[in-house]
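Service request form, structural biology core

Requester: graduate student, group of Dr. S.
Request type: structure prediction, single chain
Budget code: on file
Notes: please return the result as structure tokens.

Sequence provided:
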Amino acid sequence: MSAVGDILLAPDVRPFAVAAAIMVALGGIELLSTMIGLSISELIGKDFAVEAESHNALSGLFLWINAGRLPLLILIILILGIFSIGGFLLQGLAHAAGTAIPVSLAAVVAAAGSIPVIRNTSRGLARIIPRDESYAVNDSDFVGKVATVSVGPLDQGLPGRVRLKDVFGNWHTVSARASAESEALPVGASVLLVDRDAKGFIAIAAPADLVEQQRSSNRA
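Core staff response, request fulfilled:
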């Protein structure tokens, strides 16, 4: 067995190796599903909603790490990744000093040390990762808006993804497919969201005047 394999399978880093393996698996599944126009994030819940008025310690912790501002799956991957890196780093430093930290203690220390890192990292990611909905708007507000196809082409089969800006200037990415009467809408095409059902939005090719109006609005 290779030296890397020996390190990853060592008992004192096993929780961190398992966390890393789950993170890679989830990330791979999400990437593949997004490429075919689906998103595991949507199937298991777009966002992890934590009630702001709840005062228990667990809800307070979730709010503190910005749960609800990122898709649930992205937050899970982030937590697993930071916990794994922290654990390997902790045990690596211990090994360099000629000792080893008991695995249960190392897991507790890595988890505690990960919390502020998760908070800062999730805050940064929330600014750049488009969300399907926000505290300011609902999905229904997007009907009648012009969007751009980002994952497609859109047809009557599996949903693709379109990107649009809300009235507050925030970008969103949502599932959409072409209407029954529409031809396939390629990536980069401007589309008009005309309806919404359980699978996502229904889109048609956007009229030229609406596209120009959107461009003028974006420039402003």
